[in-house]
Design brief:
Number of helices: 0
Distance between the termini: 55 Å
Strand order of the largest sheet: 2-8-7-4-5
Shape: elongated
Largest sheet: 5 strands, mixed
Length: 233
């Protein structure tokens, strides 16, 4: 009718028929990598022939079992499939490391869709596939004799802390424990034995670090915990 009926700056949006559907993979798998970042492109497509008006939508990432900023780089913004075209790429960046962590999941959500529709859930689930199987958990020279206990009730270790501040850690059952924090090059920046609840971090640069905690559980077995630590300003 020549009028911008929904006040989005466009006139007569696909009014000659049903709006096209946005199609995208429901699940994508990407290998984590050992260092740096790996780019994963999510392709969002239109069904049928190109349309005469642009298709717009917003996107954002959200954690499932991952930690944004540690396992992948946060992504959010708006995307456009221009009139006459049929797809757009949404690039995501996955952070690599050399820790055995198991596979982890996060989502790419789509919202505020204009001039198109989505059938089903409006998100893509992404699995970061751990590719460190069979490799050591830590850098050379930092191995410990350990025994794995699948039934051990493992306390949650916070993975974000501020530099030159206090890192609040769970108190283990015994005082026999050893903590090491090292950078992405494997250099030890901090270590402490038999800590109690909180640890004072040094004044290091903000960024991603790794930790190893070895402790004795109630059964007298030595357990090793490794993970990523995001140190902020």
């Amino acid at each position: 009718d020549g009028i911008d009926n929904n006040c989005n700056g466009l006139i007569d949006e696909n009014c000659t028929g049903n709006p096209p559907n946005l199609n995208f993979p429901k699940i994508m798998i990407v290998k984590e990598g050992n260092s740096g970042t790996t780019q994963l492109d999510i392709v969002i497509k239109l069904t049928g022939a190109p349309v005469s008006v642009p298709v717009l939508f917003n996107y954002n990432t959200i954690d499932e079992t991952t930690t944004a900023g540690l396992d992948y780089l946060i992504a959010n913004g708006s995307a456009t499939i221009p009139a006459g075209q049929t797809f757009v790429n949404i690039p995501l960046s996955i952070t690599g490391d050399q820790l055995r962590e198991g596979n982890e999941w996060f989502r790419l959500n789509l919202s505020n869709i204009t001039n198109a529709e989505i059938n089903g859930p409006a998100y893509v689930r992404i699995m970061i596939q751990d590719d460190e199987r069979g490799q050591p958990n830590v850098k050379a020279g930092m191995e410990s004799e350990l025994s794995a206990d699948k039934n051990d009730l493992l306390p949650k270790i916070p993975n974000v802390a501020r530099r030159n501040s206090t890192w609040q850690l769970p108190a283990f059952i015994t005082s026999e424990n050893n903590l090491i924090v090292f950078n992405q090059q494997g250099k030890i920046i901090f270590r402490e034995n038999n800590y109690r609840n909180s640890v004072s971090l040094p004044n290091v640069s903000s960024g991603i670090y790794f930790y190893q905690i070895v402790y004795r559980n109630e059964k007298g077995e030595m357990i090793r915990r490794t993970g990523k630590l995001l140190i902020t300003e």
